[in-house]
Amino acid sequence: MIWSWEVFFDVIPIIFKGMWITLGLTIACYLFAVIFGFFWLLMDQVPSKVFRWTVRWIAEFIRSTPPLVQLFFIYYAWPMVPVVGVSLNPFAAAILGLGIHFSTYLSEVYRSGIESVEKGQWEAATALNLSTSQKWLKVILPQAIPPTIPMLGNYLIIMFKEVPLASTIGVVAMLHLANDYGAQYYKYVEPLTVVALFFLLLSYPSALLIKKLEIKFNRRFDKKYVTES
Amino acid sequence: MSTINEISLVLLKGIKVTLIVLVFSILFSTLIALIAGLSRSSSNLLINKFTGFYVEVFRGTSLIVQLFWFSYALPGLFNIHLGSDIWAGILAISLNYGAYMSEIVRGSIAAVAPGQTEASIALNMSKFQRMRIVILPQAVRMMLPEYGNYLIQILKATSLVSLIGLTDILYYGNIYRSTHLSEAPAVYLVVLVFYFILALPLIAFTRKMEVVSKKGVAQG
């Protein structure tokens, strides 16, 4: 089999249609993960130690097992679960599966952001007689959020690269289209190369942008908040 | 309970392939990461840019796309047959995670305090001695926790090789599910538990290394 430019240019518009689905799915999964990530943080505030320990190990379990298996679980196995089981379409299953998987990572990002704020800030806010909500809104969060923004951006790119997993449960995005084309004409090289190029074209500039953001926020963070003696 | 035993027995058939892919991927990706990370810290512009290109290509595209590329496109395009699919899987995972991990190597070398380099220059050490005796021992300690995290990522990535037809844990799980449709939840839960058990030593390693890395690195 020889590389054919004809096929290469033929598949670009076909794969391009799938790009919008990939991008849409990425954003949907990401939003789900960003919001659901707070859930783990909240669960960690429950006073019961046994409860917290359980939640942490559940999060560890989700974090350290393959997202592919989790997708299969939600898509193929969830409908069979008695009482609560419902059949999901591939899109919903992908959003739920990948969203839950990445929410466990994002909760760590939030946690590290909050922990990066020095203890003295909380004590100083207490000394100024601020209420708990004032402490969070005016002192802690404005300092905790900037350092997490580059990390959140990184996870958006990581999510983008994990979304092709959804092709395995039948979401017709880029990779699925490429494999379909390959199976139909027995030409895998060109479509798969086009998919790889699309990924590279979309993720590399975003990675550069995030590097810039990182530098910007670090600088702002240094100047504004950190006063070293 | 008997179904769980039955499922476990079926899945055990796949554990060999999962472990082979895991061990070889860890070995190769560590090697690639060290070479690429050192090349990225090199002052030779050609080596530096070439490695940068490799790292960006493999980090910029998705692992699953690379896996399909290696298993379908490579034999077709260059008539390269990597022996069997297992090598396509190992190669894709190693090159992908090697690229990610090379960034830890580069970052850790850059994070060693500049005073250490200056001091070793003052001691009249050669470039090679400086790297081997002063910089790397400190950088390696800093790498270890992130390295442990990536080992867990590699373990999770090995599940993808079932998509190119390798008979790993997930592959046998899928086979079992296709004949026992109503037991799907149990099948996939047991598969998840299998992967979690494999991940436990890696989780312990990462936690231990977090403690180790905090000692013995010069600050400032």
Overall pLDDT score of chain B:
89
Q: Rg of chain A, please? A: 22 Å
Order of helices and strands of chain A: HHHHHHHH
Biggest chain pair interface: A-B, 43 and 44 residues
User: How would you describe the shape of chain A?
Assistant: flat
**Structural class, judged by helices and strands of chain A?**
mainly alpha
Shape of chain B: flat
Give a quick account of the main beta sheet of chain B: strands, pairing sense, barrel closure. Answer: none
Domain module count of chain A: 1
- N-C termini distance of chain B: 57 Å
General description of the model:
The complex is a heterodimer of chains A (229) and B (220). Chain A is an all-alpha fold and 229 residues long. Chain A has one domain: MetI-like fold (Orthogonal Bundle), CATH 1.10.3720.10. Chain A has helices at 5-43, 49-63, 67-77, 90-116, 119-127, 132-162, 174-185, 189-224. The longest helix of chain A has 39 residues, at 5-43. The radius of gyration of chain A is 22 Å and the shape is flat. The termini of chain A are far apart. Mean pLDDT of chain A is 87; it is low at 223-229. Chain B has 8 helices and no strands. In chain B, helix 1 (2-40) runs antiparallel to helix 2, helix 4 (85-111) crosses helix 6 and helix 7 (169-179) runs antiparallel to helix 8. The mean pLDDT of chain B is 89. Chain B is mainly alpha-helical. The chains are: A mainly alpha (229), B mainly alpha (220). The interface between A and B is large, with 43 and 44 residues.
